[in-house]
Each structure stands twice: as C-alpha cells, then as structure tokens.
C-alpha cells in the first residue's frame, strides 16, 4: 500500500481536491467494487474465508513487520493510546450498566467498542496520515485485541457463570485459566507477533536487508486494496434482515458515540496532534469481525452482531469522512 507523502494538513483547496477526499475515494471505491463482485458471484461465499486468511496470515504481517522494523520504542507515543482504552472502557461499561450484566449485553458492548483497525483502518490511515500515522495505528493495534478481547473474555465468562449458576450440569472452569488462555491467544496471533518482532528488530539498529525488504514492501502494498475489496465482498453476502434496528443502534454508538467520547477525553486532558487524530479516526471505524467470533463462541446475538458489522460498515461510508475532516481541522 502506497501512502501519501506526510500527514494531512489544513487546506484551502477546493473540496474535490482536498486531501480528505483524496484519501477516502480509494476506500469507498474499492469497497464498492468488492460489493459488486460479491453480488455478481465472481467470488463465491465459501471463498471469503480463504481470502481473509490471505490478508491476515500473509499480507498483514508483512506490512506490520516492515513498518515497525524501522521504529525506535522511545519515539512511540502511548498517551493517546491510553485515552483510547479509557474511552472504550467508558462506552463498554455504559452499555453494560444500561442493558444489565448478561452475555447479550457483553456482546453488544464489545461491538460498541471494537474497531475494524486492520481491513479498513490500515488503508485509510495510510492514505490519510502517511507512514507516521501508520506507526501510531500499529502501536494501537499491537495491544488493541489483547486488551479489549481479554477484558471482554472476563466479562463474558462472569456473565455466563451468572446466567448458568445453579444448573446441575454446569461445570465452571477457573477464571484464571480462561483469562490466561485469552492473553495467550491475544499475543500468539498474526497481528501482534509481527509488530513485536519488528520493534525488537528495530532496536538493533540494523536495516532490513534489501532481499527481505523488497518482498515485504510488495506484500504490504497489496494489503490495502485486497482488504477493502474483501470488505465489500463480505457486505454483499451479509443478510441484515430483521436485525436492522438493533444493528443500527450498535452502529450509531460505534461510529459516532465512541469517537466523540474519545475526543472529549483527549480535549479534557489537553491532548492534540497526529497521534490523537489517528486514535479518533480509529475509534470511528466500523465494528470489527472479531466481535462475531465472540458471539459465536458464547452462542449469543450471532445474527445481530453480523448485521451490526454490515450496518456500521455501510454507515461508516458517511460518518468516517466527517470524523476525518474534523480531526484534520481541529486535532492534527
């Protein structure tokens, strides 16, 4: 994926030629092309998982390692990332308080806070903010799933134990074992591992040899277009049906309320600049697919979560441009 030269800046150019529009047009176009491809049946539904594996197992690790392999740890800014998780915690807790402590509420709370940082976030941030923005996003991604999914696992397990308490055939596993397994799965994963490996390599001060760097560069450049095409294909095969209202409620919280909470926290703490701008954009991204895996695992709200991924992605075509425009004017 080729990024624009440098982050977005305020501009007095016409809207058509603005950096925001230039960054968003490829995103919308590739998703639209993927949607048409899915509707036409040029890619079968059964092939979507294989393409997804290609993105996550090959292209994503290549881009993550190559980018983070040039970053010194002392140059990373963890302040906005802390604000990101504080905002996610507030939205998650607010959802649980409003809907009660149950596995259904936990599924909705995770959908309200877990962003599609890879398939949409990486291409969008790369186009909008360049290499520096990607470093900030990858710093978030390195702990995004680990922190949110581990916390969600604890909540899910406690909720399920509460719901099944008293049932004669229920055998509860020790919570520590479940949490330990969640932490392990969060680290031994094709997203955090190449980030950690790249950072460790970068601390040696050695350049990546050209014979390795060039293939990594080519693989990384393929990630953005293929990931966005895959988002469109997935939308074509997703049936929203009778879950539209519930899915829309989740989408409104995820795409609008989550970035607003983050922006308010950042403003209250006096933060600004590129790192905070990337965090706000990341918070505005649609619901990530990992939420469905949790719904499937705990057998709760599977159809509703699937619909929310589709609805929030479609809504994001309207809301994310607004967020991106706003942060380039008042934050970055």
Automatic annotation (TrEMBL):
Stretches that traverse the bilayer: 20-39, 51-69, 81-97, 109-129, 135-161, 182-202, 222-244, 256-285, 305-327
Alphabetic keyword roster: Cell membrane, Membrane, Transmembrane, Transmembrane helix, Transport
Superkingdom as given in the UniProt entry: Bacteria
InterPro entries (alphabetical): Mem_transp_PIN-like, Na+/solute_symporter_sf
Gene3D superfamilies: 1.20.1530.20
Membrane topology: Multi-pass membrane protein
UniProt main location, coarse: membrane
One Pfam family it belongs to: Mem_trans
Protein's cellular compartments: Cell membrane
UniProt similarity note: Belongs to the auxin efflux carrier (TC 2.A.69) family.
Protein name: AEC family transporter
Origin species: Acidovorax lacteus
């Amino acid at each position: 994926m080729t990024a624009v030269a440098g982050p977005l800046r305020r501009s007095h150019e016409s809207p058509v030629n603005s950096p925001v529009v230039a960054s968003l047009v490829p995103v919308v176009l590739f998703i639209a092309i993927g949607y048409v491809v899915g509707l036409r049946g040029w890619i079968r539904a059964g092939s979507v998982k294989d393409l997804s594996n290609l993105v996550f197992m090959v292209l994503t690790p290549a881009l993550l390692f190559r980018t983070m392999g040039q970053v010194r740890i002392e140059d990373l800014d963890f302040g906005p990332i802390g604000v990101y998780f504080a905002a996610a915690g507030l939205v998650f807790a607010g959802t649980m308080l409003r809907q009660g402590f149950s596995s259904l509420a936990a599924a909705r709370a995770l959908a309200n806070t877990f962003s599609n940082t890879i398939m949409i976030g990486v291409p969008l941030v790369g186009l909008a903010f360049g290499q520096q923005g990607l470093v900030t996003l990858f710093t978030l991604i390195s702990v995004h799933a680990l922190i949110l999914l581990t916390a969600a696992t604890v909540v899910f397990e406690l909720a399920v134990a509460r719901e099944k308490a008293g049932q004669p055939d229920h055998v509860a596993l020790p919570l520590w074992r479940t949490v330990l397994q969640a932490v392990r799965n969060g680290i031994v994963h094709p997203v955090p591992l190449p980030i950690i490996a790249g950072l460790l390599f970068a601390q040696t001060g050695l350049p990546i040899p050209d014979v390795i760097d060039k293939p990594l560069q080519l693989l990384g450049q393929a990630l953005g277009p293929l990931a966005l095409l895959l988002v469109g294909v997935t939308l074509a095969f997703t049936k929203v049906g009778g879950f539209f209202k519930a899915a829309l409620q989740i989408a409104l919280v995820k795409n609008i309320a989550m970035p607003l909470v983050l922006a308010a926290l950042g403003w209250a703490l006096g933060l600004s600049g590129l790192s905070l701008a990337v965090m706000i954009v990341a918070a505005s991204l649609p619901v990530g697919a990992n939420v469905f895996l949790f719904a499937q695992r705990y057998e709760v709200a599977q159809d509703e979560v699937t619909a929310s991924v589709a609805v929030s992605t479609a809504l994001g075509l309207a809301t994310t441009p607004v967020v991106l425009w706003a942060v380039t004017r008042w934050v970055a």
